[in-house]
């Protein structure tokens, strides 16, 4: 069984450059379906979720040339199937991001119902409601969603019940080929959506307002392939900044390869906790210094520009060491506190009440065997191990590999005492 073994107490120093954003790259790959021909994506993270999305596209008939491990040339001219198969959707829910582009290009899509995951039900009712407003007809049978837009897509006004990232993206990717104008109100504003809209506009789409709550799309007849660079991963960046806040040496931990303005609320909350964060003179990154004393700060996860749910676990590793009590409220997912119970095994004092985590700061963590509950929780357990007394063995690290490229190597580059190793699998007799 593969684990990440962390020896606590070693100060981190140096500079780490983050990879391209997982939550942009996956949608940009799906969006290549809208532009017959070869679109080249650069700064693509070399992570397992990207490999799965590649399989989804190849299953449909796309050809993908791995120019180098961060550059993909995706030729969708030969796509002749519009099905996202169960075994791939079950592996990666983000496969549902092909629904909008398939409808935009072919007027049909057959998507396996995305199962729940350990964050919650992960429904797509808002995707379906919005696409129905554009004229798509849905039928669900045998675990598949059959979407039919053979009567055409017609621009209209859609107000999302919640600023869903995925629903906003699928609606934009269908609306770019609808007849007329689509206005999406209460749209999600995440930087990854802005990145997607930028690429689509480079392809010939006419999208305005991405990054604001109202996105307007003028439908066009065709889109052409482009070359586009994936935006830097703000969540990976925030993860390394928290590592610096926990255990940086005198020079601090510097993180580059992303836009600091994509982490506004995270920086604000970390500074309120007592973490000194400096912006590089050229604005190309941030340096986090170790917080000798962590102040308790309440955090609410909300859609961007609110505090990102994908940074909730990482923030908790700081809050659980604060000199006082904090409350972290998870408003995005119904079940995203499993990380907390693993952190309690390392000595944290956290009590969960529904969507609230009541956190009583403790003086330190003790290393222990722990299990990654999900992608971000797994990374946060490694962070906790960096400051824990003794050794922490983090298992189920396939979760981490989904969204963090070379996580161990990047930490070792910062002088962390971390290694990927294997131990006998207790489940095997
Ligand atoms: C994206 O998921 C990200 N994934 C998530 O990152 C991120 O946590 C989330 O946005 C919020 O920022 C990718 O981009 C691949 P939502 P998504 O639609 O699109 C409910 C990570 O760690 N909902 O904004 O699924 C849903 O169940 C991952 O990188 C409905 O009920 O997020 C969830 O509770 C984890 N019906 C909430 O809304 C719908 O139709 C937020 O979902 C759609 C969503």
Key terms:
429 residues; alpha/beta; four-stranded mixed sheet; 14 helices; 31% helix; globular; binds ligand EPZ
- How would you write the strand order of the largest sheet? 22-23-1-24
Beta-strand content estimate: 25-35%
- The secondary structure category is alpha/beta
Number of helices: 14
Mean pLDDT score: 96
Instruction: Give the overall shape, derived from the CA principal axes.
Output: globular
Task: Provide an overview of this structure.
- This protein is an alpha/beta fold and 429 residues long.
- The chain is built from 14 helices and 24 strands.
- The strands form six sheets. The protein has a four-stranded mixed sheet with strand order 22-23-1-24.
- α4 packs parallel to α6, α5 runs parallel beside α6 and α6 runs parallel beside α7.
- The chain starts with a strand and ends in a 7-residue tail after the last strand.
- The model has no long low-confidence stretch (mean pLDDT 96).
- Ligand EPZ binds next to α1, α5, α6 and α12.
Layout of secondary structure:
Elements: E1 2-7, E2 12-17, H1 22-31, E3 38-42, H2 48-59, E4 63-68, E5 71-75, E6 83-84, H3 86-91, H4 99-106, E7 108-112, H5 125-133, E8 137-141, E9 144-148, E10 157-159, H6 165-175, E11 181-185, H7 191-202, E12 206-208, E13 214-218, E14 227-229, H8 234-247, E15 248-256, H9 264-272, E16 277-279, E17 285-288, E18 299-300, H10 312-319, E19 325-329, H11 338-345, E20 349-353, E21 356-360, E22 369-371, H12 375-387, E23 391-395, H13 398-403, H14 407-412, E24 417-422
Parallel strand pairs: 2-15, 3-14, 6-7, 10-11, 18-19, 22-23
Antiparallel strand pairs: 1-23, 1-24, 3-5, 4-5, 7-9, 8-9, 11-13, 12-13, 15-17, 16-17, 19-21, 20-21
Helix pairs in contact: 1-2, 1-7, 4-6, 5-6, 6-7, 8-10, 8-12, 10-12, 11-12
Bound molecules: ligand EPZ.
């Amino acid at each position: 069984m593969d684990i990440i073994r962390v020896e606590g107490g070693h100060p981190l120093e140096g500079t780490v450059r983050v990879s391209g954003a997982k939550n942009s790259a996956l949608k940009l790959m799906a969006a290549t379906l809208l532009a017959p021909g070869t679109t080249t994506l650069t700064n693509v993270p070399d992570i397992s979720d990207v490999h799965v999305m590649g399989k989804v596209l190849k299953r449909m008939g796309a050809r993908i040339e791995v120019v180098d491990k961060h550059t993909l040339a995706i030729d969708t001219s030969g796509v002749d199937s519009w099905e996202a198969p169960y075994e791939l959707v079950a592996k990666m829910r983000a496969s549902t991001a092909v629904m909008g582009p398939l409808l935009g290009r072919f007027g049909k899509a057959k998507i396996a119902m995305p199962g729940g995951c350990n964050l919650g039900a992960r429904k797509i009712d808002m995707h379906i409601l919005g696409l129905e407003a554009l004229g798509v007809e849905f039928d669900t049978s045998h675990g598949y969603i059959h979407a039919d837009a053979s009567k055409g897509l017609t621009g209209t006004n859609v107000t999302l019940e919640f600023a869903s990232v995925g629903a906003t993206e699928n609606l934009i990717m269908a609306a770019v080929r609808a007849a007329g104008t689509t206005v999406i109100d209460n749209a999600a504003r995440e930087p990854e959506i802005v990145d997607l809209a930028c690429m689509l506009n480079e392809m010939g789409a006419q999208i305005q307002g991405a990054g604001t709550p109202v996105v307007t799309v003028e439908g066009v007849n065709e889109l052409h392939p482009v070359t586009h660079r994936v935006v830097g991963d703000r969540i990976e960046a925030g993860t390394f900044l928290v590592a610096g806040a926990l255990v940086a040496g005198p020079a601090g931990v510097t993180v580059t390869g992303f836009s600091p303005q994509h982490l506004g609320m995270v920086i604000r909350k970390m500074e309120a906790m007592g973490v000194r964060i400096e912006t590089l003179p050229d604005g190309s990154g941030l340096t986090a210094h170790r917080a000798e004393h962590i102040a308790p700060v309440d955090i609410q996860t909300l859609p961007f520009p609110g505090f990102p749910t994908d940074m909730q676990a990482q923030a908790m590793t700081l809050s659980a060491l604060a000199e006082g009590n904090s409350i972290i409220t998870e408003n995005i997912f119904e079940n995203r506190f499993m990380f907390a119970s693993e952190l309690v095994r390392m000595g944290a004092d956290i009590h969960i009440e529904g969507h609230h985590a009541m956190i009583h700061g403790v003086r330190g963590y003790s290393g222990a065997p722990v299990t990654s509950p999900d992608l971000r929780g797994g990374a946060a357990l490694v962070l906790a191990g960096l400051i824990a007394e003794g050794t922490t063995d983090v298992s189920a690290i396939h979760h981490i590999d989904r969204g963090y490229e070379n996580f161990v190597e990047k930490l070792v580059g910062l002088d962390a005492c971390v290694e990927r190793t294997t131990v006998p699998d207790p489940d095997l007799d």
